[in-house]
Amino acid sequence: MKVENTCSIVTGGSKGIGRAIVELIVSKGGNVIIGDVLDKEGQEVADSINKSGKKRAVFVHCDVSKLEELKNLFKVADEEFGGAQIMFNNAGINEPEYPYTDLGSTSAREPCKEFPFYSFTKNSVWHFTHIMSQLNWENIRVNCIAPGYTRTDILKDGDVDETEILESTIGLLEPPYIASKMLELVEDDKANGVVKWVELEGDQLASKVHVISANEEVAKFLANSNKDGKEENVPMN
C-alpha cells in the first residue's frame, strides 16, 4: 500500500522515531494523525507540517494505555481525513482493538540483563505481531520493525546521557532510517507477520528479517530474498 492520499495514525509521533515516521509519510503525500501525551511537542510538529497552508497533520492528545483515547484517534481520523488506513504503533503496547504496525527492539532477540522488563515486553511485541497477523482479517496486515540503539531522547532519560558513549562504541541508528524501514513493510503487500530487525554491523547498517508466518508462501519469499540474513548495506553518513 502506498501512503499517498491515505491517512496514518502514529502514536508517539512528537519526537524521535515517531516524528521521523510522521515527516516521511507527509513527504510521500500522506496525511497523519499524531497521537502523544506530549501536547506541546506534538502540536509543534503538526503546526510545522501545516505551515504551508494545507492541513496534512492533526495532533490529538493520546495516552495509549487508555482505550477511549485510542478510539478517539480513529474518530478524529474519520472527521479530518475520511478514515485511517495505516497505524504505526510507536508509543507502546495496548489492547488489540485495531490493527498495528508495531515498533519492537533488537533487545527482544538478545535479552539485556540491564533492562529485563524492557527486553521481555519488547519480546511480547514480536509475539503480538505474529498472532495478530494470523487472525485472518480481511485486507489487514500486521508487521513489526525492531531497531537497535537509535539516536532518541530515551538515551538521555537515565542519570547519564548515553548518546556519546554508544556513538563512540557500538554506534547509533538514525530515526529517519528506521522510519524508512517501517514504510517498506507498509508498502510491501506481501509482508504480514514479519518482524524485521535493524542493527549496526561495523561501519554499515544491516537490515535483517525474522519471519514467522501462517502463510508459507510469504515465509519462503522472504527467506529466499534474504538468504544471507541481510536485506541491504547502507554506508553510514
TrEMBL record:
InterPro entries associated with the record: NAD(P)-bd_dom_sf, SDR_fam
Presence of the UniProt keyword Amino-acid biosynthesis in the record: no
Protein name: NAD(P)-binding protein
The keyword Oxidoreductase is annotated on this UniProt entry: yes
Keyword list, A-Z: Oxidoreductase
Source species, domain of life: Eukaryota
Family in the record: Belongs to the short-chain dehydrogenases/reductases (SDR) family.
GO-annotated molecular function: oxidoreductase activity, acting on the CH-OH group of donors, NAD or NADP as acceptor
GO terms for cellular component: cytoplasm
Position of the signal peptide: none
